[in-house]
Write a structure and sequence with these properties.
- Chain A is α/β, with parallel strands linked by helices.
- Chain A is built from 4 helices and 8 strands, in the order H-E-H-E-H-E-E-H-E-E-E-E.
- In chain A, about 25% of the residues lie in helices and about 30% in strands.
- In chain A, strands 3-2-4-5-6 form a 5-stranded parallel beta sheet. In chain A, strands 1-8-7 form a 3-stranded antiparallel beta sheet.
- Chain A is globular and about 45 Å long.
- Chain B contains 12 helices and 9 strands.
- In chain B, strand 1, helix 2 and strand 2 form a beta-alpha-beta unit.
- The radius of gyration of chain B is 20 Å and the shape is globular.
- Chain C is an alpha/beta fold.
- Chain C is built from 15 helices and 21 strands.
- Chain C is globular.
- The two termini of chain C are about 15 Å apart.
- The chains are: A alpha/beta, B alpha/beta, C alpha/beta.
- Chains B and C meet through helix 3 and helix 4 of B and helix 8 of C.
Chain lengths: ~190, ~325, ~450
Amino acid sequence: MAERERKMTRPFGGVFVPRTTVMSQDDIDRAIWRMAHEILEHNHGVENLVIVGLQTGGVPLAARITSALEEITANDVPTGMIDVALHRDDIGLRPVLPEEVTDIPVDLTNKIVVLVDDVLFTGRTIRAALDALTSFGRPRSVQLAVMVDRGHRELPIRPDYVGKNIPTRRDEVVDATLEGVELGEMRK
Amino acid sequence: MTPKHLLSIDDLGREGIEEILGLTDSFVEVSARRIPKVPALRGKNIAWLFYEDSTRTRLSFETAAKRLSADTMNFSVGSSSVNKGESLRDTCLTISAMGVDAIVVRHRSAGVPWQIANWIDASVINAGDGWHEHPTQALLDTYTLRSHLGDLDGRHIAIVGDIKHSRVARSNLAAFTALGAEVTMVAPQTLLPPSLEGWNANVSHDLDAVLPTVDAIYLLRMQLERQTDALVPTLREYTDGYGLTTQRLAALGEKALIMHPGPMNRGVEICPEAADDPRSVITEQVANGVAVRMSVLFLLLGSGAEHEAGGLS
Amino acid sequence: MTNAVLRQSVLIRGGTVVDASGSRVADVLVGSDGMIEAVGEGLKGDLELDAGGCIVSPGFVDLHTHLREPGKEEAETIESGSRGGALGGFTALVAMPNTTPPMDCVGVVRDVIELGKTALTDIFPSAAITVGRAGEQLSPMAELAKLGVRIFTDDGTGVQDDLLMKRALEYSVGLAPFTGGASVVLAQHCEVAALSDGGFMHEGEWSSRLGIPGQPAEAEELMVMRDIALAKSTGARVHFQHMSTAGSVSLIRAAKAAGLPVTAEATTHHFTLTDAACASFDTVFKVHPPLRTDADVAAVKVGLADGTIDAIATDHAPHCAHDKEQPFDSAPPGMLGLETALALALTELDQPVEKVVGLLSWQAAKIAGIDDVHGCPIEPGRPANITVFDPAEAWTIDSSSFASKSTNCPYEGHNVKGRVRHTIVNGEPVVIDQEATR
């Protein structure tokens, strides 16, 4: 789930006020191509690869990485999306409703799954996604690609492919889209 | 704002119905997974309090709860303290004291879920109260209709049969009309409620006239005791006037849906050919029942809406 | 009657006396013998009760009280019920016979009379028309009449068997030798069981919506019709209990116009509440006959205003909380009434106070056959059964403050006007300044 949207969910609310632009649209494009190449290098091609975007911020990014992979290799790469709302560990602590329907088009058994999200923060969303993936088969491996790693991990999770490492304060908000990445805060 | 209880369709209104149905898509997806189980309600405790036998509804709820990883306990009325003269309130306080998050109740007497909601802190879900309401049935029926017809605005649905004694008819009428459908109730006068004041429905005694105009025909179960109660002279005569017979099946629109809450009396309100017709969505209703009930349980117990002031982890 | 208070004379000072003969400002002196000694000005008594701003009226008579004793003393006793009655301004209560065992024989009725002697109000037992209120065999009406019973009823159910009811009415006509010349009356709970059994509220718009099986208006009206016909053929007096439908009111109006010896009562709840209240599924609103529609409420009010209905009765029916905390279909029917009747009548009826007092007092006393003791004009030489109430005092109904042992009051939190200040029963001030004296 995109951090901005999560922050705007009840009861937090407020308006995102950007302070600095940390990645431009060009930076994003270059990062996507680089990450696609790293994925290919690491996995020796696209065989058995499945790209899974996390709802909602990871989905457009996953689509871009998939099309980059397809352009580079001229092969189809299956892509899916997953909503982790039902797998989160903070259900009941704050409003969490599924926003989109999960769509995993293939059985994941023996596949190499690359999870894609916009911002990696505490790691709890990724934990939930790892849990959710087990309902769709037993992948050979699961890897993680994120556009921004902003630190403050609460779980032993690390990304395999990173667009940019951005040190942040806990109370700051990172707004990552395909148009760029901005750092700022929420105002009521 | 998520309600604490699910007692009636009227409480939900159009917005509430649409929220639950929208959420249901996610649970249809979960139900189709290789391992159709999510941890969303881990640690939540749900009690079944069924004063009336209803294996179908209880199994549907039970499946829904298990797919959400909730713990469940069955308060078996037949073999319990209820038979030892315990009052309804004491029974509910006892269950409540064990620490339940929700009680799913079915009772032969209208209003019992409302009474229970006044006595205990847990969420109360009405799984059918007397002739009054059966909201989850209406939600699953509405979900099934929408998955075939899309928007219900302006659609015409006939509810046929024993409307007087039917909680399904009352809840469905409320749900269908809340979403903009037009409803015609078709029944002999003896099986209509004594007063239809305030009912947002057309009434007809002529199924053959209504049949060609409907987008869906919803048949209610015809109980054998209605004959002994002199509400219909014979079941044969009922079938002749109000059953979906093979002749009527031919008059039904090509795309019209055939629905039934089950269990069916084949040969009474519905002929076997109609039950097995491609237009029949009766088994789909059952499948959707699980997803809709997951949606309801999750919304009441898992969405965290009751913790508006909670903090982000 | 050696009570110390009784030896005193009591002066009711500063009120407006209202009785069947009209109203006038006067003080009332009650002698130590329990009789009214003087009515006028410049009187002196041992005990003075302030009646400033108050109406001083003949004591109220409830034709329809369920005191639950014997058999269900945890819900009410004759003592607690009479305490509530006295606080509500009643000086006499007619006890309904659906006790356990039922008041259908000399033994039980004598027991109730005995228990009633220590009550705060006079207690007049009614007795069942049929043995066990089962509708099959007549109770020993002459024996019971000899004990003092003047009202026979199977209340809680109507006598279903047409022939048996006709025989009961015929028999009642010849009971004068056993009563010292007074007549008795058969009071009917009008409900044709075949139409109403299995119903738990009024059959109509709300029962249809709520999916609660209904009791149709005609279940009551058919029995009213039958008993009017039987009153005509037998010449016997018939009293119609708790009339609740517009149809019943019309039938009785016509019967009275035809000169038939019929009387009728209406309860406070049937002119203040409707079946819409059942939408809460709160069993406090479950009652027999059921709460009806707005049109029925309006008709009952007209009936009370034009004299078709002779008396306001409470049908005070206490039930323990745990009995009421059941599903709507299995909870027992009935609601409290004694401590709210006057206020509801004054608040809801829109009738002059003289009219309301007549409905609560002397008109009821006449039906009960006790008008020689209760509901009498306030004049010297009469038994001092007197109610003093402030018709304007506003208060909020709170059943936890009631004397009744039960709390099944449907008016919780209602704002009403009119409150009893003092009640004098046979010369004894049993309620002074809204408090029972014993």
